[in-house]
Amino acid sequence: MSTYTPPLRDMQFVLHEVLGVSDEFKALPAHAEVDAQTIDAVLAAGGRFAAEVTFPLNTGGDAQGCQHNPSTHAVTTPTGFKQAYAQYVEGGWAALSCDPAYGGQGLPLVLNQCFYEMLNAANQAWTMYPGLSHGAYACLHAHGTPEQKKIYLPKLTSGAWTGTMCLTEAHCGTDLGLLRTKAEPQADGSYKITGSKIFISAGEHDMAGNIVHLVLARLPDAPAGSKGISLFVCPKFIVHADGSLGERNAIDCAGLEHKMGIHGNATAQIMLDGASGSLVGQPHKGLAAMFVMMNAARLGVGNQSLGLTEVAYQNALAYAKERLQMRSLAGPRARDLPADPIIVHPDVRRMLLTAKAYAEGGRALSSYCALLLDKEQQHPDEKVRQASSEMLALLTPIVKAFITDNGYEATTLCQQVFGGHGYIKESGMEQHVRDARINMIYEGTNTIQALDLLGRKVLGNNGATLKKFGQLLGQLAQEAGANRSMAEFITPLVELGEQLTPLTTEIGLRGLQNPDEVGAAAVDYLRITGHLVFGYFFARMAQVALRQMAAGNADPFYPAKLQTARFYFARLFPETATLLRRVRAGSQTLMDTDLALA
User: Fold this and answer.
1) Which of 111, 223, 514, 537 is at 20 to 30 A from 187, Cα to Cα?
2) Is 443 among the catalytic positions?
């Protein structure tokens, strides 16, 4: 039977000891009064909700799935999902980081990010219902008209209504310039939306009173391609001027996808047949508005795999301590037992430590990015807001792709720890693997994230933002200075940073001659950069641990953190040597392969 314990101690370490969020909040007027005690209390309560309310529904929700009624187009979620959502709303969790002007609690986004890590670990499929609402809220908060904000934001804030993003069509996924959904202007200023969308997560369900669909469509005069896309808000039920609900809008769920994982979430096929909607933002500028939701979703998807990595690790660790198999190569450890627990075996430890390192590195990066988002939105200094925005843009594809790639590897390794028992449903491990697989695909495949990182975020501004991250590495190296205990972390980190600059220049020059060179390098380049970023945070975490130990702190948490950091740099970080060589191999052995692929 699977279990889950919220990793509160590690969250507190990252937030308070590594990132110093309370001091950061003092510079943000909206959060200046948020102290460590408040953060810890909220996370403890959030952890209880995740572990006690949503986690017990995970296995049953996966087995039962969602049910679609073809005659009524209604969708029923698994047993207990609706009741858990009512508890979520009643507890005020939906409003945690929302604007007080619309009924929100106004707490920092980094706090909400940590809460959602726990929800994702407990039950990713359930968490997607309220999770998508945050993206819809953010999009309308940034680009909605005053009337749209008045109608929709209080309901999304309270959780009374949920939200979706309706982008994908059967003939086009990432290439949204090909979409065909049409929007016809009406005399009253509204629009009639007609078309079909697929793969719409939480697109239809029975958990909330209304669903706010954000739909991409084309106006009659739209130019071709992505520059001709507009964004519309189309509610499941028409909303009257006084906020009351009217008749059902012409939006139906035509069916649910039969999926590998996340069975408890309704991945819907949506049909719009003259559905009433209102324009969000400017005509033909829909992608710019939708990117607010898409970027939030990309950070959220990284958080999904972070949660799955953590829960898989916890259960694999517990199993490895109990499962007896063979004797240690170094001689019997448990002499009173017929065999040793498998945790004595080196390769079992390799698998466990890989998952642990990827969880802890991902947590540090995810929390840092959420803090950047808080600073981007709330800091009074425009220069700080801009710098935070630039750094967040650089790191977002790494959060989405690197953490989800790592998450799939980690859950698979944790399944391997269970041996044959990991392949059957009873242990719960095979569900974590299945659920983790989608995170590498949706919200822009990881290859798309790699192209975004290398092509837009790095080469697109001649590496300016990457150089700013390099300055953070330089500051850390300078701080470590003469501390010999930090050399094992700083030296490989600085070496990789020094290699990345000429590598980036080399790719850029080759790309000018042949654009396929960028495509051939992108995935490996993102992984190199991901290790650079993880290495930076592991070095910072090791620095804190060493400082505490030197001060006489006997908490075993700190030497444990140091051991994990050492494992990461010794066993995972060296992957970059292979990646560097692969990038320099160029595109020819990929593209000059017509005969091989005939």
Assistant:
1) 223
2) yes
CA dist., res. 138 & res. 112, Å (int): 14
Separation of CA 42 from chain center: 21
- 248 secondary structure, DSSP code: E
Chain mean position to CA 382? 27
Return d(Cα 558, Cα 556) in angstroms, integer: 5
- Measured in whole angstroms, how far is the alpha carbon of residue 535 from the centre of its chain? 19
Q: Which of 558, 567, 496, 557 is nearest to 532 (CA)?
A: 496
Q: Which of 382, 443, 495, 517 is catalytic?
A: 443
Tokens 């139906």, residue?
252
pLDDT given at position 1: 78
Q: Do 130 and 13 form a contact (C-beta atoms < 8 A)?
A: no
Largest CA distance in the chain: 84
Q: CB–CB of 171/219 below 8 Å? A: no
Residue 376, SS3 per DSSP: helix
Matching residue, tokens 């242990």 = 427
- DSSP letters for 159-199: TSEEEEEE--BTTBSS-GGG---EEEE-TTS-EEEEEEEEE
Which has the closest alpha carbon to 574: 583, 566, 584? 566
Residues 557 and 287: their CA atoms lie apart, in Å, by: 45
Sequence letter at residue 519? G
Q: What is the DSSP letter of 249?
A: P
CA distance 561 to 10: 9
> Which residue, 197, 128, 137, is CA-closest to 161?
137
59/550 Cα distance (integer angstroms): 45
What are the tokens at 375?
Answer: 């600073």
In degrees rounded to 5, what are phi and psi of residue 189? Answer: 95, -5
The closest alpha carbon to 132, from 196, 211, 31, belongs to 211
Three-class secondary structure of residue 223 per DSSP: coil
Q: Of all helices (H) and strands (E), which one includes residue 201?
A: strand 191-201
Q: By three-state DSSP, how is residue 280 classified? A: strand
Dump pLDDT digits (tens) for 266-280: 999 999 999 999 999
**What is the predicted pLDDT for the residue at 172?**
86
| Amino acid in the structure at residue 312 | A
User: What pLDDT was estimated at residue 177?
Assistant: 78
Neighbouring residues of 309: CB distance < 8 A, sequence distance ≥ 6: 355, 358, 359, 362, 403, 406, 407, 410, 411, 436
Q: Which secondary-structure segment (H or E) carries 578? A: helix 575-584
CB 464 within 8 A of CB 386: no
What the block records as the tokens of 231 is: 């964004």
Q: The tokens of 561 are what?
A: 């953190």
- What contacts 418, CB < 8 A, 6 or more positions away? 316, 319, 323, 427, 429
Residue 585 has what pLDDT? 97
Structure token pair of residue 342? 């498998």
Other Cβ atoms closer than 10 A to 487:
11
- Note the pLDDT of residue 122: 98
Residue stretches of the chain with pLDDT short of 50: none
Place of tokens 């192209």: 451
Pull the structure tokens for residue 373: 């988002």
